[in-house]
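## retry 2 of 3
previous attempt timed out at serialization; input unchanged, resubmitting
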Amino acid sequence: MPRPRFLPLPLTATVAALSIALCSCSSAPGSADGGPARAAAAAGDDAPRMTQQEMNARPRDALRRGGTLVWAIDQYSSQWNPLQADGSEASTNDVVKALLPTFWRSDAGGVQTPNPAYLSDVRSETRQGKQVVVWTLNPKAHWSDGTPITWRDLQADWQALNGQDPAYRTATSNGFDQVESVVRGQDDFQAVMTFKEPYSEWQAMFNNAGNAPLLPAKYVATPELFNTSFKNRIPVTAGPFTVGSLDAGSRTVTAVADPQWWGDEPLLDKIVFKAYDTGAMPQAFAKGEIDFYNNGPNTEGYRLIRSTAGGEVRKAGGPNLRHLVLNGRSPLLEDARLRQALVQAIDRAEITRTDLAGLDWPYVPMNNHFLVPSQHGYQDNSEGLSRFDPDAARATLDALGWKPGAGGVRAKDGKELVLRYVAPAANNLAENESEEVTRMLAAVGVTVQVQTVPAGDYFDGYVYKHDFDLTSFSLLGTPFPVSNSISTFQQDSGSNWAQVGSKALDRAMADAAKADSADEETAALNRADAEAWQVAGLVPLYQRPAIYGVRKELANIGAAGLGDVVYENIGLLK
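## retry succeeded, writing output
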């Protein structure tokens, strides 16, 4: 994947915004032969190219006015603030991107362009040796309660996200913690942001492509407001759509075109976001209940989309990854050496093959936490930990004092090595992975007990509470390679699902964030990758295919790749 290109500006400096969103994302194992995918991999085409995009792109004047889009999401959120620790879900982001401000547009190659609906001008420059970004706001932009969007909103977001006050339960502070001040510029519609040190990905800030929309000062100015104002409600909007209704009973959010919107008029009348268990989405699409859903690596769903009258597959590469997670604060998993042994006992290539069988996608496991196989600088820094080696795993477990006992189950100090794998229900991908991991770890004397939980409770009830020993889910990334990852690996971050890390890993990620060149950034990411293998918490499985089921008549929506969806431009063909 080529690095995203940024607008030519006097100074590049990074601001890392929240950029990873979680997705349980189902799949179904298919035939073992794999057809075209296996052939492509064998031919050396190790990974799909990631600059592609399949959105049925059409100009606005080619589309008709009106209509309703039913968009399936995988969870009805209880926290609608996507920057709060409990809100960083793909489903939450899908909804709020229609409702909240984004200062940028991202194309298929990751090029960032200012969104004139919110920005009249933006520039980055050097003042007295420091990077300064001047945000000049569109004075027409306002919140749905009539309050204008001003510099105070940017200041309040920075104060909430800078990490200085732990009472703000943020999903991330990276980037914002490098900002020294946000002050009023020439008037209320200009914010002057000064950084402590340069940050090259500053365009990820206030950016839907970075999963970081602007939030209103009125509702984030204190920790209590930040944490609770969007709890079970969306109190204010400032996008092309506004909230028509929130219905927890039917797990549905209805977004309606906002008549007060000052930008291009939305082509659709409404978007209905309805939560489904991911395994139920393909049938709902085939029955005509939904118009658009994220199929991911669901083989049966892939086949069903192609056989559904009026439906089509739209797929592209993207920075989306499937991971296995080992909870480093679980009593049995606190020792990094034990976690390393478990990783070596798991055949990630076999999991990749069984997860992706039947899809036109290569069966290539990832051996790097930050870079995908087709990306410049990709290399294996694991020092052998990425290799499936059950004999090495057994030797390490023996050395750690975990000896085979009754029934072959390893035990130490009277305690058996029995781990709990939490998997969302109606999710064939998670079902396959939990079965494979159970079988593989049993071969080295480790027992895995699978706990299947309601899909709607999976993140809120288990992942966010770190209530698991093992689990797996997808991380949906953005055009910003460093911003994608810092909060996921940083010690004590609200988005560090494995709850492991090291000072060396933090330093390497910080070096990547302030790198002056792509090569320096890549080198730092590879240093970080080496450390990530050692802490052995979040384990990469494979690059997740971005595959969507879409009604053929829908335009400007589908597999966005490195781009973003412009909600006001989604429409129906004439």
